[in-house]
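The pair is set out directly below:
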Amino acid sequence: MPTLTIGDTAPDFQADTTDGPISFYDWAGDGWTVLFSHPRAFTPVCTTELGYMASIKGEFDKRGVKILAISTDPVEGSSEWSKDIEETQGSAVNYPIIADVDHAVAKAYGMLPADVDGDPTARTPAQNATLRNVFVVGPDRKIKLVLIYPMTTGRNFDEVLRVVDSLLLTANHQVATPAQWQPGQDVIIAGSVSNDAAKEKYPEGWDEPKPYIRIVKDPTAA
């Protein structure tokens, strides 16, 4: 089963969703996208995940990042599931859920083997256990992040948001973010930036505990 990793081109696709038909590239436009998959509708852990993502979607909106979910269930199943999500999680689903009934998206993204076929509603969540991925796709259509979770562990979308903040920062400034970084905290000058170039960008200098670690203030911090 081919897998996609960081730096690969995210496949384009056409799909029916709870918000109507989409063509992924056209729908994503020139922005960033978080694409996350689910084994089936009406699964307990995924119910909490879609609800939480709905509750923080505004934070992704502020950053110009679109949200797109995947389920193998038909549109009608995901629409009914959305009612349960709103009832139990307190947030209505406010982004499209793909109805990947022919498993085409799951296969294109390496989440299911090519030989999977048949009625998607006849497959159990356990058979679709590999549909627990998070992809962040950049404006250049390249995959910037891949996370894969087991069915029994709910995803941490605050962490996905933190990574998005790091990706946006590092895409626009030649820096990297250290362990446990949060927006506004110090960052590391990227190794691709020479000292001469760094002096032009950071004339006030930087902290250098080792020659390969050059620490500066977050260039976007107030």
